[in-house]
Sequence to fold (94 residues):
Amino acid sequence: MTRTIALSLAAVTAAMTFQAVPASAVSIAVKMACMSDYLSHCSQHAMGSPATRSCMRAVGAGLSKTCIRALVAGGEVSQAEVDRRKAAMKSAAN
Fold:
């Protein structure tokens, strides 16, 4: 079963890698770091579509730390935006 999951992830990664690359394409590093987040939250949307970006933004703080770090490093979101969302969540919890 573990082999099946690994092969499935490899197939999805390969499919993402060989897609036509639009000007605002997400880097391979971001795709790899955010794969599980995409599969868990946004797989109903086509990979790399505007709907996927909207979905990932809507999930926001629910994304893994690895994915968030990759999104910041890839210029998809600023650290200031991440900090602002964290503060907003903290204040809403109080």
In short: The chain is about 70% helix and 0% strand. The chain has a mean pLDDT of 80. The chain has one domain: 28-93. Residues 2-17 form the longest helix (16 residues).
